Amino acid sequence: MSKKTFTLGIFGGGQLGKFLVKSAKKLNIKTFIYTDSIDSPAIYYSDDFIISSYEDKKKLDFFIKNVDLVTFEFENIPFKTLDYVQKKIKVSPKPSIIKILQDRLKEKTFLNSIGIKTTEFYYLKKINKKSLSNNIFPAIVKTTRLGYDGKGQVFFKNKKDFLKYTFKSKEYIIEKLIDFKKEISITISKNKTKSVSYDAFENLHKNQILQKSHIPANISAKLNNQAKEIAKKIANKLNYIGTMCVEFFVTKKNELLVNEIAPRVHNSGHLTMNAHDVSQFDSHIRAVCNLKLKKPKRIHKAIMYNILGDDIKKYRSKETMSNEFFYDYGKKVIKDKRKMGHLTKIF
Ligand code: ADP
Ligand code: MG
Questions:
Q1: Contacts of 139 (CB under 8 A, 6+ apart)
Q2: Which of 31, 56, 188, 191 has its CB 3.0 to 4.6 Å from that of 46, i.e. a possible disulfide?
Q3: Residue 2: band (very low, low, confident or very high) from pLDDT cuts 50, 70, 90
């Protein structure tokens, strides 16, 4: 592969990678995917790809040699890998940020340290289980690392059930279950000097997996602006470069609590592909490549439905209406609860 044209290296080959590749193509940027999974839809669209372990130094060296900049579509790329790569070539967003955001304890501690509210939480390794106050229940226990789509999470109604439970992994946090009014998220893209963000998406989860997102969110303009300001503060404090998504709980008292931060493009932002003049994927490519960012303009109202597991089969044979956009991620293996595609309706 020639290095003459600018080539963006992307770790991860899932649907987020696939949409990033498509956006890069529009900007005449070549892409090179590095993934550890054979079932990676992005590789069919990128200019080049490697399928190997994230620890394979030889392959990593080849990848580094053939790209001009590296980003990722998935935050659980081992930090060691990102650190190895950044010693030789720029990685955006910075791996030191990922180290914080890969770990729920570090993430929430960081947020609280800059004055941003989260749920009440405790680090389970540090405290004596028995000393936990009853007031934290009902609660959720989450692994500090490697959780997504509700993986690594257990609910507890009361302390009695919690004390009886045997945990498999070692590092957990316990957090209070929030009786929230709704969930929203803000997607923000930042280059070296400037950031742009989308208005809030309103999100509905089922079994801790995103079921649907819609815009505009049914919240006040004031709350929307507050959420955008919080996302901006986080991005600025981290000197972030790229696209990031901040997930919030809106409490019954209209208070905003940050649930978590995804240091990447996010499922709730898929509808930007059809509802806005510039998608979250376009914005991410612009941000990491330090191109001029476009302030996103919403053209339509929209709702996006995730398609999980076997449901994809129904959609594959269904006709879509003129205001519907069906995306089949093209994953070879259908698994229960696996994100297989999505449908966006615009109005
Ligand atoms: P993941 O990394 O799996 O997305 P999250 O922490 O975002 O993990 O949890 C997934 C979903 O589970 C949330 O979007 C929310 O619907 C629900 N959830 C998680 N934590 C809480 C909480 N403390 N109170 C109420 N609901 C929660
Ligand atoms: Mg989440």
A1: 155, 156, 162, 174, 175, 176, 177
A2: 31
A3: very low
**What element of type H or E holds 159?**
helix 159-164
Residues 13, 18, 19, 22, Cα dihedral to 10°: 130
Looking at residue 290, its amino acid is: N
**306 pLDDT more than 70:** yes
Atom of ligand 1 nearest to the CA of 175: 23
| Cα–ligand 2 centroid distance for 324 (angstroms) | 26
* For ligand 1, mutation pick of 137, 203, 208, 209 (most atoms within 8 Å of CB): 208
Query: What lines the ligand 1 site, CB under 6 Å?
Result: 119, 140, 147-150, 175, 177-178, 183, 205, 208, 247, 259-260
Is residue 3 scored above 70 in pLDDT?
A: no
What is the position in ligand 1's atom list of the atom closest to the CA of 177?
24
pTM for the model: 0.96
CA nearest ligand 1 atom 17, residue: 208
207's tokens: 């079994």
